[in-house]
Amino acid sequence: MAHTALNDDEIQEYYDSTDELDKKIKKLANFIRDAKHFIVYTGAGISTSAGINDFRGPNGVWTARARGFVPPPSKVRNPEPTLTHMALVELMRNGYLKLLVSQNCDGLHLKSGIPTNRIAELHGNSNCEACAKCGKVYYRQTHVNQYEHKTWLTGNTCTVPNCYGRLRCTTVAFTQSMPDVCLDRAVKESQICDLSLCMGTSMRVSPACKLPCMNLKSGQKMVIINLQKTPYDDQCALRIYARCDEVMSMVMKELNLTIPQYTD
């Protein structure tokens, strides 16, 4: 996995000045108000404030491995959705956000209240297991334990009458293919998107990194919020260097929306 880490220059983090950030927030809020088909694409960076490590940040899992260190463990055993997660829920409730496309498998988007039919989880969900026989999906509040690595079985059995199938993890390993249904949905929606907002992603994992810019030739605007530079920065209508929670807090105020508190 170490070969996927960034070099020292790519790891460098940047921050917009207060004045720059204020101007960019107003611009982003206007983009959201005017959009007809707004899609958000999320990566590991939106979950770091929940105590979950990212991959390519200065303290990321792959960064540590590339430097010969053991990656630090996540800080919490049962993480809760962040301010950013909850802001996305409210944007969806108010009709702004049409679809959420995520590379994260931490389960926090569904835990936050995003409906299953409004999200494409490209890399699966660590809180979800599915029957290998009939396909029924089970959503849990905590991570599904995997006891047999080669088959990704969880040790649980399907409850559908007369099925008795064995349940398996739904997460996608780094070298595995993404689920066709999720990827197809993400591609179809991305082709008609007029505003894409990429948050907490290095934009380096294909095909996920190509989705947010699929409709640029038709006038789509792309916005990236990330502390590190990405290969797609020059294609942005707006590039923001700030932490996701800070940006979303400011954007929601600009839109006169209240971010809900997470409750179990």
Automatic annotation (TrEMBL):
<dbReference type="InterPro" id="IPR050134">
    <property type="entry name" value="NAD-dep_sirtuin_deacylases"/>
</dbReference>
<feature type="binding site">
    <location>
        <position position="131"/>
    </location>
    <ligand>
        <name>Zn(2+)</name>
    </ligand>
</feature>
<dbReference type="GO" id="GO:0003714">
    <property type="term" value="F:transcription corepressor activity"/>
</dbReference>
<dbReference type="InterPro" id="IPR003000">
    <property type="entry name" value="Sirtuin"/>
</dbReference>
<feature type="binding site">
    <location>
        <position position="158"/>
    </location>
    <ligand>
        <name>Zn(2+)</name>
    </ligand>
</feature>
<keyword id="KW-0520">NAD</keyword>
<dbReference type="GO" id="GO:0046872">
    <property type="term" value="F:metal ion binding"/>
</dbReference>
<dbReference type="GO" id="GO:0005634">
    <property type="term" value="C:nucleus"/>
</dbReference>
<protein>
    <recommendedName>
        <fullName>protein acetyllysine N-acetyltransferase</fullName>
        <ecNumber>2.3.1.286</ecNumber>
    </recommendedName>
</protein>
<dbReference type="GO" id="GO:0000122">
    <property type="term" value="P:negative regulation of transcription by RNA polymerase II"/>
</dbReference>
<feature type="active site" description="Proton acceptor">
    <location>
        <position position="123"/>
    </location>
</feature>
<dbReference type="GO" id="GO:0141050">
    <property type="term" value="F:histone H3K deacetylase activity"/>
</dbReference>
<dbReference type="GO" id="GO:0070403">
    <property type="term" value="F:NAD+ binding"/>
</dbReference>
<dbReference type="InterPro" id="IPR029035">
    <property type="entry name" value="DHS-like_NAD/FAD-binding_dom"/>
</dbReference>
<feature type="domain" description="Deacetylase sirtuin-type">
    <location>
        <begin position="18"/>
        <end position="258"/>
    </location>
</feature>
<dbReference type="Pfam" id="PF02146">
    <property type="entry name" value="SIR2"/>
</dbReference>
<comment type="similarity">
    <text>Belongs to the sirtuin family. Class IV subfamily.</text>
</comment>
<keyword id="KW-0808">Transferase</keyword>
<feature type="binding site">
    <location>
        <position position="163"/>
    </location>
    <ligand>
        <name>Zn(2+)</name>
    </ligand>
</feature>
<dbReference type="InterPro" id="IPR026590">
    <property type="entry name" value="Ssirtuin_cat_dom"/>
</dbReference>
<feature type="binding site">
    <location>
        <position position="134"/>
    </location>
    <ligand>
        <name>Zn(2+)</name>
    </ligand>
</feature>
<keyword id="KW-0479">Metal-binding</keyword>
<keyword id="KW-0862">Zinc</keyword>
<dbReference type="GO" id="GO:0017136">
    <property type="term" value="F:histone deacetylase activity, NAD-dependent"/>
</dbReference>
